[in-house]
Amino acid sequence: MRIALYCLAGLTTSFAVITFFCDWFWCGPDPSINWAKGEQECTSFTSMTLMRLLWSMNFTSEVLNVAYPIPLLATLKMTSTRKKIGLVVVFGLGVITIAVSVGRFVTMGYVDNAISIYIWATAEICISVIVVALTAVRPLLRKLTNLKSTTLLMSEDRSGVPAIPLNRSRKLGGFTGGSGVYWQ
């Protein structure tokens, strides 16, 4: 699996480098031609050949990046339903990213409307960023829910009586000696 991961990382990196150079040098060795007007006008954005090439590399890397961890999921022994749901959501968003990419490809090939293409491209980028960011969001959500539950434990009801007893031991992680210090 480690060799496959290195191959996948190398393939994704090479696709990114190829995309970069194709976008810059599609019209020749001088990248400024991409912005030229008149008889020298050439742009990588309007080339359907380039679009098919770059989309096929993008699609291949997206499918491989979503499919790579699936065999590992079969070996996981998770008892938490919340974690299982979280994984399904992350992989579901990965599949949605691929579907939006296909929608963008179809739109570029058959619809002559730049606004529709921009909408599909923006949706694809946004969903991809969300999928990547979800791995960092989990610890943040854990801290926020922990903070929320701690706040609830330390709150008082309307009569002014604390919601939890003040004389719990340090080992239990509660208040000690009525001092109001909370030990975690």
From TrEMBL:
Keywords in alphabetical order: Membrane, Transmembrane, Transmembrane helix
Bilayer topology annotation: Multi-pass membrane protein
Chain ranges passing through the membrane: 53-73, 85-105, 117-137
InterPro entries: Rhodopsin_dom_fungi (IPR049326), SAT4-like (IPR052337)
Residues in Rhodopsin domain copies: 1-143
Pfam families the record matches: Fung_rhodopsin
One cellular component (GO) term of this entry: membrane
Family per record: Belongs to the SAT4 family.
Name of this chain's protein: Rhodopsin domain-containing protein
Source organism of the structure: Fusarium oxysporum f. sp. conglutinans
